[in-house]
Amino acid sequence: MSHANAALTPRHRLIVGRLVVDDGWPISEVAARFQVSWPTVKRWADRYRTGEPMQDRSSRPHHSPNKTNQQTARRCVRLRLRLREGPVQLASRLGIAPSTVHRILTDVHLNRLSHVDRATGEPVRRYEHDHPGSMLHVDVKKLGNIPDGGGWRYVGRRQGDKNRAATPDKPKNKHYDPLMGKAYVHTVIDDHSRVAYAEIHDDETARTATAVLVRAVEWFNARGVTVERVLSDNGGAYRSHLWRDTCAELGIRHKRTRPYRPQTNGKIERFHRTLADGWAYARCYTSEAERRGELDDWLHYYNHHRPHTACGNLPPFSRLINVSGQYS
């Protein structure tokens, strides 16, 4: 098919070739008749003379020595499906440019994940504090405990129920089904650097939440970060007197989000999705203890090695200066 601005259609190109080659018309007269340039008429006349088609030639090169090989493309697709990471993170793993990863994902229609676009009907308002420690975001991510042998997400509902029933030392509900319980991941993330701290507990009480906050503040202080403010939702632990008194002892100003407005604490909500995709549901764990044992290693990868788009495609720890073990 000819391009949108072509003066000659394939049918008229054929007429031009016949007039010049078969009927012996001068090129200048044919060019004046069809209101095109002399080189255009000569080009189509030469192609007609050699028996070439009157269609546009493909602009694709005959050889592409720098083309991404199929093995890398297939690995890119597999990592996208398994890890649900973006082009920047996948490019770091594959050793290629983020634009190349995006092209590969676009070719296989994987450039958008179903849960990426969450339209709220309101303009997106972004903010970022200007130095580490100016604001910490805190929240709790609840996860169902994994039975011995693997959970239903990977082994299926039927086998998952069998694994639940076979897991020892679990209480029963009124239907005599085992209660696996929940894992409460208490997460803390710095607003400026996106450096994350997390602990797993069996509850989300005020005593547990305040103890996590104290240890998180000590952890950030050891890395040269002085915590000034903390932002939380309106959960019971964060409305307690114990939380209020602990913040006062630490010299931290506590702020809460507007009720039913999780977007205000969106940085940690987005971190929870990264946490779920990269650690909690990244692979088939055969027990809850195995999954919990992997959290520290994943947090180290997230803080020290995983490229973050908010940090200029650098790891979060790159925004902390002169920290011991920063480049490990």
UniProtKB/TrEMBL annotation:
- Per the record, a Pfam family? HTH_23
What sequence ranges are listed for the domain Integrase catalytic?
Answer: 143-323
Provide the residue span(s) of the region labelled Disordered: 51-73, 151-177
MF terms (GO), sorted A to Z: nucleic acid binding
- Bias (Basic and acidic residues) occurs at 158-177
Q: Where are the transmembrane segments?
A: none
**Biological processes annotated in GO:** DNA integration
- State the name under which the record lists this protein: Mobile element protein
